[in-house]
Amino acid sequence: MKFRQAKLQIALCLSAFLLSSGSAFAADSNQDKWQKIYTTGKESLRLAEYGKAERQLNQAVILSAAFGEGDKRFADSLGSYGEYLTIRGRFGEAEPILEEELHARELCTDTTSGAILPSMSSLVGFYINNGTQAKAAPLAERLLAFVEGKMSEHRQAQSGPLTLKKGQPLTGWAGSAAKSMVTPVIEWAIALDAIGNDFKSIKDYDMAERLFDAALEVKETVLGKDHLSLANSFDNLAAVYQERQDEARAEQYYRYALETTIRVLGEKEPLAYAQVYNRLDKLAKCLVKQQKYEEAETLYLSAIKRDFWKDDPSKAGVEARLYYSLGNVYVLEKKFELAEPVLKKALEVAEGYFGSESISLVPFFQRNADNMYYLKKDDLRVQYKSRANAITDTTM
Known about the structure:
Blueprint: H1 2-21, H2 24-46, H3 50-64, H4 72-87, H5 91-108, H6 117-129, H7 136-156, H8 179-201, H9 205-223, H10 228-243, H11 247-265, H12 272-289, H13 293-306, H14 316-332, H15 336-354, H16 362-374, H17 378-392
Helix pairs in contact: 1-3, 2-3, 3-4, 4-5, 5-6, 6-7, 6-8, 7-9, 8-9, 9-10, 10-11, 11-12, 12-13, 13-14, 14-15, 15-16, 16-17
C-alpha cells in the first residue's frame, strides 16, 4: 500500500515539474491521451474489471497532474480513482485521494456559487461510513456555514421582485429565476439530506437535525411551500425526534408530512395513494407509541375508506399491513371483538399475496392467536399458533 502511494506521489511530482518547466504544449498534447485512458478507466470500473480500472485510473491521475492542481480534469481523475479504492474497500488509501480531490475542486470551482457542496457532502459521507469519523463534523460545519450564510442573505434581502444571480443563488425565489440556477441549489438540499442521514446513523442527532433543517429551508426558498420534497424533510426531522424519544415533536412533523403530501398529490391519483398511506402509517404508529389509540384508529379507518387498493392487486401487501395495524390498535384498546374480523381480514389478504407458506405470515398468525387468547377461543388460538409454528419449523 505504502509503495503504491509513494509511486503515485513521485509521478504527481514529476508531472508538476514537467508543467512548471515545460510548457503548455506538453499539457495540451496530453489531453487526448488523458481523455482516452480516463474514459476507458471509468468504463472498466463500471464493468467491475478492477485490475484494468486501477491501472487506467491511476494513470489518468498521473497524466492529469500535468494540467495543474486547479484543473477540473485533475479533480475528476482523483475522484474516480478514489471511487475505485472505496469500492475495493481500500479506505485508508482512498481517504487522502478524496481529500485531494476536494482541494482540487475548490481550486477550479467558483466557491461562492455553492457548486462545491455536493463534493463536500460526498466526503463527509465517506468519513462517516468508511473513513475517519472525527473529520466529518468539521467539514459538515463548513457546509452548513455556507448554506446558512446564503439563507441569511436571503432573509435580509429587500422585499420586492428579486432574481437569482450567479454567486448569490438564494437572493430570491427560484420561481422567478433562471432554470439553470435552480438545479444547483436543489443539489444543496440533496447534499444536506444525505449527510443528515449519515449523522443520524451514528446517532449524532444534533448535527442531523441542523442539516435536515437547513435542507428544509433551502427547499422552501427555492421551491415554495407546496412541493413534495418538503414532506420528505418533515419525515427526516420526525425520524430524528423519534430517535430522541421525543414522540410529541415527531408527531408534529409526521402531521406536516402527511398534510403536505395530500395537499400536493391529492389522494386519488395512482401515484399518490402509496405515499399518502406510508405517511399516514408513520403518523399512526407515532400516535400508538404515545398511547393515542383512538387517533391512530381514526387514521387507519380513514385509509380503509379511501379504498386505495381497489382494482390494484399488486398493493395487497400494503393492504394486509393496514388491516394488521388497525387490528393491533383494537387489541391495544382492548376492543377484542372488533379486532377479530379485522385481523382475520389481514391474514386472508396476506396469505393471498405472500402465499400460504411464507414467513411473512407469521406475525399475522401470532397476532390472531393473541387476540383469540383474550377472547378465550382456545381452539382457534391453537390453530393459529400451529400454523405459525409449522412455517417457522418450531414446536409449541
